[in-house]
């Protein structure tokens, strides 16, 4: 099997799996009744997973901790987002902060 065939096969497998999971949601929603507490925990778990992925991406560079500029840029983005600054300005400020700190040698 060539690498192109393997890549196409893997892509088709992932597409089929994604479609199956998406279709299982509405089917299981009609058959499976969760209590309010369990539903709240499921909703919160999605947020926890997203936050953990964001934190690991912000703090790690492969297997090592990243330079201090990256977490500083993320912190600026979090603060500006909290104050509801428009998204393009948040991106520019975070990237500018990271670039400036890296230029200064941090």
Model description:
It contains 4 helices and 2 strands, in the order H-H-E-E-H-H. It has helices at residues 3-31, 36-59, 69-82, 87-103, and strands at 60-61, 64-65. It has a two-stranded antiparallel sheet with strand order 1-2. Helix 3 runs antiparallel to helix 4 (87-103). With 106 residues, it is mainly alpha-helical. It has a domain at 1-33. Strand 1 and strand 2 form a beta hairpin. It starts with a helix and ends with a helix. Helix content is 79%, strand content 4%.
Low-confidence stretches: none
Per DSSP, the total helix count is 4
Helix content: over 70%
Alpha-beta content class? mainly alpha
The assembly state of the depicted protein chains is single chain
Count of distinct strands? 2
- Termini, distance in Å? 47 Å
Shape: extended
Q: What is the CA-based Rg, rounded?
A: 20 Å
Main sheet makeup: 2 strands, antiparallel
What's the order of the H and E elements? HHEEHH
Strand content: under 5%
Can you give the mean pLDDT? 91
- Give the strand order, joined by hyphens, for the main sheet: 1-2
């Amino acid at each position: 099997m060539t690498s192109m065939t393997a890549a196409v096969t893997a892509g088709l497998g992932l597409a089929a799996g994604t479609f199956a999971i998406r279709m299982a949601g509405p089917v299981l929603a009609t058959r499976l009744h969760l209590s309010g507490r369990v539903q709240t925990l499921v909703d919160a778990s999605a947020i926890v997973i997203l936050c953990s992925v964001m934190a690991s991406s912000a703090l790690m560079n492969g297997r090592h901790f990243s330079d201090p500029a990256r977490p500083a840029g993320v912190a600026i983005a979090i603060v500006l987002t909290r104050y509801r600054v428009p998204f393009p300005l948040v991106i520019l400020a975070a990237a500018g902060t990271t670039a400036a700190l890296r230029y200064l040698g941090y």
